[in-house]
Amino acid sequence: MDNLSQLVEAFIFASDTPISLDRLSTLLEQPKSQLRPVVEQLQQQYGVAERGFYLAEVAGGYQFRTVAELAPWLRKLRKDRAPRFSRAALETLAIIAYRQPATRAEIEYLRGVDSGGVMRTLLEKNLLRILGKKDVPGRPLIYGTSRQFLELFGLRDLTDLPTLKEFTALDPQLITADPLNPDSVEAL
User: Is residue 82 part of a domain?
Assistant: First the structure.
């Protein structure tokens, strides 16, 4: 294909969600090994030039994203506001992101309060997903984060989440003590 780079670029541009190499391979009837260098070359081209957008690898795929510095200007274009999360929602998301799979009881134990309403809202916003049922008496549902969570927070996968060392480098106040053992320190 003479225009493989253009086709890859067009598919990524036209897709509403991050598009994976597997999906590109199926659509273009080309092996992933041939498409990967094309995508990497596009990432390099968009990364070098001073543009209002770049090609990011998020949620297991590729997507064009606007640069963060332009967000205040771009909000004028959109009628809806940037998503806002309550402290409870952020705590719940963080616990699930770092401890998944997790049951509602485990989340409520760590937060110290009922989290049913917050979890229901996060499920409705497709930021959480039900992974199945835990093999214990009562068979409670187990939860994990969704692809939309990864996409919203600009993560390729869960390994992109900040580590405890990265948190402490930012602000020591971000670390909380374990309520059961005051001598220990642990992150969400």
Answer: no
Residue 101 within a domain: yes
58 and 120 together in one domain: no
- Residue 141 pairs in a beta bridge with 133
126-163 residue pLDDT tens = 999 999 999 989 899 999 999 889 888 888 888 888 88
What is residue 162's DSSP assignment? P
Q: What is the pLDDT of residues 34-71, one digit of tens each?
A: 999 999 999 888 887 788 888 888 888 999 888 888 88
pTM of the model: 0.56
Structure tokens at 20: 């994976």
Domain containing 29 — which CATH number?
1.10.10.10
- Are both 93 and 163 inside the same structural domain? yes
CA separation for the pair 21, 30 (Å, rounded) = 10
Task: Quote the DSSP letter at residue 19.
Answer: B
